[in-house]
Specification:
Distance between the termini: 21 Å
Order of helices and strands: EHEHEEEHEHEHEEEEHEHHEEE
Largest sheet: 5 strands, parallel
Length: about 240
């Protein structure tokens, strides 16, 4: 089994050291950072999981997840002292996979880590199916009524963002922050318009009356979830 690398981003040094010790005792390869700047340097190594404090000296963990970690295929578990329902919702909306509030016990944290890793392994090959649309996240391939549909890298990024946020209104600002072009540069507003239009041409039966990518006037876009749509998990390497 491949070694699992976990990045711990926590500015409380005593807590950071305690988590690192507990993880290493469980056999994980652990990387430690006390700031977001340090954390970004560790991302050259592919991680299996990131433990991320929300309040850090040089920024907000939620913004780091949306702007940096969204470009890396890694599950994220938030560590935070904020335990209100509103704060938890903000964390999940930012894209975290789970949430644990401080103070917490190490056994509970280890159980949560194990659960997140198990879920992420179980969907290492994930397929979205809806009507005649089938999208394979691992292969970055889309078929419509059984026929292959060519997607650009930017269209793939946009489609995956929609599929992971079905039923949620994504503002133009959110979309512009979380998708990039082939050179990892931020996309301009005009480019977003063109990409949405092209993606509609590829996924909709009638792009003039879209069923999937709905415009929410004055706000942004929303991927509508038709009845019968589903994610189909499978084992990595499955054909």
């Amino acid at each position: 089994m491949a070694e699992k690398h976990i990045l711990v981003i926590e500015d409380d040094r005593a807590l950071n050291d305690g988590i690192v010790f507990a993880l290493e005792r469980e056999g994980y390869a652990v990387h430690s950072a006390y700031t977001l700047e340090e954390a970004e340097r560790h991302l050259k190594q592919r991680m299996s999981l990131v433990l991320l404090d929300i309040n850090l000296p040089d920024g907000d963990g939620r913004a780091f997840l949306e702007n940096v970690l969204s470009g890396h295929p890694v599950p994220v578990l938030f560590l935070t002292a904020r335990d209100s329902e509103a704060d938890m919702m903000k964390g999940f909306q930012a894209g975290c996979d789970d949430y644990i509030t401080k103070p917490f016990s190490m056994p509970v944290l280890m159980m949560k880590i194990g659960a997140v890793l198990k879920r992420s392994e179980g969907v290492s090959r994930q397929i979205y199916a809806s009507g005649g649309l089938v999208y394979d996240f691992e292969k970055k391939s889309l078929t419509r009524h059984g026929r292959a549909v060519e997607l650009t890298a930017l269209e793939c990024r946009l489609l995956e963002l929609f599929l992971h946020n079905t039923g949620i209104v994504l503002t133009r600002e959110m979309l512009l922050e979380r998708i990039w072009d082939a050179d990892e540069r931020f996309v301009e507003d005009k480019t977003l318009n063109v990409t949405v239009r092209r993606l509609r041409m590829k996924v909709e039966e009638n792009p003039e009356q879209p069923e999937y990518i709905r415009t929410v006037f004055g706000m942004g876009y929303k991927w509508e979830e038709p009845a019968g749509s589903r994610f189909v998990p499978g084992r990595s390497g499955q054909s």
